[in-house]
Amino acid sequence: MGNVNDCTDVNDLKYSSSSCNAKLIKPRTLGECKNWPKYPRATKGPVVIKVPVVLSEFTVQIDFESVIKLEEPALEIKRIKKNVYLTQCKLIPKTDKLFIRGFIRKNIEYSTVQCADKNGINGEIKHTTVKVPFECVTRVPFMIYPKFDPRMPQSEIEMFDPELLGRKATEQDFQDFEIFNEEVRCELVYAKICEEDIEEDQTAIKDSPDEHTFQILTEKVVLYLKLKLLQDQQVKVSGYDAVDSDMQEGDFVKEFNPFEDIDEVNKE
Known about the structure:
Elements: E1 47-74, E2 76-91, E3 97-111, E4 115-117, E5 120-122, E6 125-139, E7 155-157, E8 160-161, E9 166-167, E10 173-175, E11 185-199, E12 203-205, E13 208-237, H1 250-253, H2 260-267
């Protein structure tokens, strides 16, 4: 980096058209592909199906603060791209407590100062990427409670000894019964981030008293997460109605014909 006041006029730069490597490569227009609507084949009810059941859907608010140090002093923030990731969303069985943990990935683009004078400031665009963690515990308002069955205690079966007329001491029999429950899963529906960025260490720029640089940011964040808790459960489906008046009930339950699609295509 040269002298901060050593500015180069953009009109003095020389450009050559032969040095440009960017160009359009192989453009083409795609035609539309034809399709045919098909009604789904389904088993006629009533039936019992195993599907994800929505146990709860709610929005949780998480407030936190973070301090970020940039790689170089910045003149101003140009853009902050943010993405939310959850690394833990765990419900404790037989309770209504949900443990949440994750982070916000922030890519901060900012302008730097390479040279400055009374007429203007020149510099480059830099970026810094950080992962800001957050965690909390919240109480879940259940619409439907999850199903958890405990493991049964071990039972012992005693045998009769006809010679001793009592318990047979040379033989022991045990019975164990394990139940494997479906895990409660967490689904992130959306994330909303409201934040305020505060410049902490402002340093005035020589020859530009109205401008300053900074390197440390304090961020105050209010994060809203809409979560959905799901558990696979068996659900009874009583039946269904025809989708429209032109469709007969038999269209849903007819046997699969592998040549039906081919016949319809040939008719077109």
